[in-house]
Design a protein that fits this description.
seven-stranded mixed beta sheet, alpha/beta, 39% helix
Length: 416
């Protein structure tokens, strides 16, 4: 919502002030954006990190920075007379129905002009439906379920890749390894029982069949399970060449510990990010994950070619005490993409912002991501969000795929 100041009547008054070397009165004080993440519960750290990322983006937008990013080089939104973005955070606790209720509260009570979130795909599904009902744009920063952009929604926009794009990159990598002489015949699917896990497995099942990989195990488990012993025993018995896990943080840690306890060591693990992109996972069990590969949207290695990447990472690290990762980079860019559209809309009106989002065309070089550009199709999905694959080596991630972005060849098989 914009709180409007008194304006000079007509353009003539503004021109008169301009002639005196004065600026017209600013058209707005602020544009309010609602932000939905889990700030409590099992995914609370994800929410804390998301807040740091989005507040870093807010600083880039509202202050002035010498960065090659939209809205960085001036304070506020010039299209709205220098208005600032104001954020209102809500805790959805990882619960889709709580997300729905919080989205409605932000729209009806906080009078937000747009919504941003939500990490959990199941929450983004209910939030996007609520936003659609009220005609408020929803910028899906990081949820990756492919079904989200296939609901015929007009107010849904996702700058980052979805799991079909990510999984295709994984299988492209496996094909490339085969081309280098590696024997890779079987894969094991291990996924949680939410929209995120089920959609990911559906895509990977299809790609495995198309690319000629046998599925040795296809295991759906209950998220936040107290034990994964039975499931890991199945994985060990199947002994696939590659394990493809789709899990959030708590389960990623439990899976890794259980694999170590049972002596299960696949040739490689290629993860669907989420829990396997979080610092807490590597702080806890990183010694057991040497050589793990995860898909990603972000490569800190890109800083060598694009100074803004390193500069923005430094801003984030000053707040969060850690580097940007797959999740936080998407969250940060999500607010910048949204604000860039609000600025072009010149308005806090949801329909006008939606129209501006639909016309977005940001070159990849003006983001912190390894993307070609940000431009949305009729379904609200950016199809130019190129994924990368990152390998955990020592105490850091190294970009290993595609070759155009890689800084080192992949270790294969992964080290024990």
């Amino acid at each position: 919502m914009i709180r409007r100041r008194d304006l000079l009547a007509g353009g003539a008054g503004a021109l008169a002030l301009s002639g005196l070397g004065l600026s017209p009165a600013r058209a707005a004080d602020e544009v309010v954006v609602g932000v939905l993440y889990a700030m409590s519960g099992a995914s609370a750290q994800v929410g804390v990190d998301a807040r740091h990322a989005i507040e870093t983006a807010l600083d880039v937008i509202n202050a002035s920075h010498d960065l090659d990013l939209p809205l960085a080089k001036g304070a506020g939104l010039p299209g709205l007379g220098g208005a600032k973005i104001r954020l209102v955070f809500a805790d959805h606790q990882g619960d889709p129905q709580k997300g729905r209720a919080e989205a409605e509260r932000l729209i009806t009570q906080s009078k937000v002009s747009a919504l941003l979130g939500c990490y959990h795909s199941a929450v983004s599904a209910t939030v996007s439906a609520t936003a659609e009902r009220y005609g408020v744009p929803f910028l899906c920063a990081d949820s990756s379920s492919p079904s989200l952009h296939r609901k015929g929604l007009k107010f849904f926009f996702r700058p980052a890749a979805h799991d079909e794009m990510f999984s295709a990159a994984m299988f492209d990598f496996l094909d490339a390894q085969r081309g280098k002489g590696q024997t890779i015949e079987t894969v094991a699917l291990f996924f949680e029982d939410t929209i995120y896990g089920v959609d990911s497995a559906t895509v990977q099942r299809k790609l495995a069949a198309e690319r000629g990989y046998k599925i040795a195990a296809d295991i759906k488990y209950k998220s936040n399970s107290p034990s994964l012993t039975a499931e890991v025993q199945q994985l060990k018995t199947a002994n696939a060449d590659v394990l493809l896990p789709t899990t959030y943080t708590t389960d990623a840690i439990l899976l890794t510990k259980t694999m170590a306890e049972l002596g299960y060591k696949p040739k490689s693990i290629i993860a669907q990010a989420a829990g396997f992109s979080e610092k807490v996972t590597y702080d806890t069990v990183g010694d057991k994950l040497q050589g793990l590969i995860t898909r990603g949207s972000f490569s800190l290695d890109l800083a060598a070619k694009r100074p803004s990447v390193g500069a923005v990472n430094a801003l984030y690290k000053a707040r969060a005490g850690r580097d940007l990762n797959d999740n936080t980079s998407r969250q940060l860019m999500g607010l910048i993409v949204l604000a860039e559209a609000v600025n072009r809309a010149g308005s806090a009106d949801g329909q006008k912002i939606r129209t501006a989002l639909a016309a977005t065309d940001i070159p990849g070089a003006q983001t912190i991501m390894p993307w070609k550009r940000v431009a949305f199709g009729p379904d609200g999905q950016n199809t130019d969000a190129d994924p990368v694959l990152l390998q955990w080596v020592g105490e850091t991630f190294v970009t290993v795929f595609p070759e155009s972005a890689a800084v080192a060849p992949a270790l294969w098989p992964m080290k024990a």
